[in-house]
Amino acid sequence: MSVTQPPITRELFNDVILPIYAPAQFVPVKGQGSRVWDQQGNEYIDFAGGIAVMALGHCHPVLVEALQKQSEQLWHLSNIYTNEPALRLAQKLTAATFADRVFFANSGAEANEAAFKLARYYATNKISPYKTKIIAFHHAFHGRTFFTVTVGGQPKYSDGFGPKPADIVHVPFNDLDAVKAVIDDHTCAIVVEPIQGEGGVTPATPEFLAGLRQLCDQYQALLVFDEVQTGMGRTGKLFAYEHSGVVPDILTTAKALGGGFPVSAMLTREDIAQVMTAGTHGTTFGGNPLACAVAEASLDIINDSQLLDGVEQRHHWFIKALEEINQRYHLFAAIRGQGLLIGAQLTPEYAGRLREIIQAAAEQGLLVLSAGSDVVRFTPSLIISEQDVQQGMAKLHQAIAQVMG
């Protein structure tokens, strides 16, 4: 007897998916470049980019070709064996960065989990068994595993799940004196985002990052850069640490690394990596051939001076358009960020209306994001066309006019 399947609609979400998300009422079914279409055929310009994931837009032909080619060769082996795509990708990542060694996983949270475990393992094995303190920052976001969500400085994500991992201290972001007040010989690591993404698109100052580097050197602690969101060209450099000249000991990246295919990486130096041995850490799917083949294609395209220079050009397109909107509506208290990670903070008068603005934008055919409770966030494709930027900003203008009445 055949069973009639229910229609695949937005309402089905409420019946079958764990109720931890509140997705939009429309269901996207197709994407190409910086445009998306839903089940009804409505078209949207995508300024969200899957939350900084779709660095090359939707269905980039080179990434599609890499996935199709690898899908006919080898999908999965586990880490009982290595594979050529993983080795090629690791070689290219180390050649392009400060790092000597790479660990592949599937998400930013997993890369950060590995980084935090490595920092503690290194400190307790090489220096002192009591060297376990991790210093992190208010409003940070590092993932949703219990360790990473606790290191993240937003209790709303970690409260309610029982006792939290211990020896994690949070201080204000961009406040070097606050770090100096809590760092000591028991500190194993300082964990920082070069730009706090979920926390409101707030850049770290160069002086702050340089001060963290000096403190880590002074106290034999490791400096960990979470570049899950800022990495892979998002800021106009392959990785954001290159802007400041401050080199971390451990770096994590994910999101745009696979251009939409789930993959992440933790990068570190040889001397730190050598503390780990077979079985100390691991993952079943991390470094699988499918993910690494796509990520290699993504890295090859993004790690190009012309593309990276284009990110800065596109930054100016966005800033100019946002400033023009603001001259008319006086909606934004600040417009900040770097490259194509941009946040427009609402004035106190409109701080409670962020959801309205995002909803109105969708109704006009534009996808944008939030960052915190009062920041409109833009993380589009790094190769978005000027026409798409102009048309998207016109839609944002219409949405704001709708909200303002």
Automatic annotation (TrEMBL):
Note describing how the cofactor binds: Binds 1 pyridoxal phosphate per subunit.
Cleavable signal peptide: none
N6-(pyridoxal phosphate)lysine modifications at: K255
GO molecular function per UniProt: identical protein binding; N2-acetyl-L-ornithine:2-oxoglutarate 5-aminotransferase activity; pyridoxal phosphate binding; succinyldiaminopimelate transaminase activity
Gene Ontology BP annotations: L-arginine biosynthetic process; lysine biosynthetic process via diaminopimelate
Amino acids binding pyridoxal 5'-phosphate: G108, A109, F141, D226, E227, V228, Q229, T284
A single GO cellular-component term on record: cytoplasm
Pathway the protein takes part in: Amino-acid biosynthesis; L-lysine biosynthesis via DAP pathway; LL-2,6-diaminopimelate from (S)-tetrahydrodipicolinate (succinylase route): step 2/3; Amino-acid biosynthesis; L-arginine biosynthesis; N(2)-acetyl-L-ornithine from L-glutamate: step 4/4
EC nos: 2.6.1.11, 2.6.1.17
Cofactor: pyridoxal 5'-phosphate
UniProt: N(2)-acetyl-L-ornithine binding residues: R144, T283
Catalytic activity as recorded in UniProt: N-succinyl-(2S,6S)-2,6-diaminopimelate + 2-oxoglutarate = (S)-2-succinylamino-6-oxoheptanedioate + L-glutamate; N(2)-acetyl-L-ornithine + 2-oxoglutarate = N-acetyl-L-glutamate 5-semialdehyde + L-glutamate
Record's subunit section: Homodimer.
Function of the molecule: Involved in both the arginine and lysine biosynthetic pathways.
NCBIfam families per record: arg_catab_astC (TIGR03246), argD (TIGR00707), PRK01278.1 (NF002325), PRK05093.1 (NF003468), PRK12381.1 (NF009047)
Family designation: Belongs to the class-III pyridoxal-phosphate-dependent aminotransferase family. ArgD subfamily.
Protein name: Acetylornithine/succinyldiaminopimelate aminotransferase
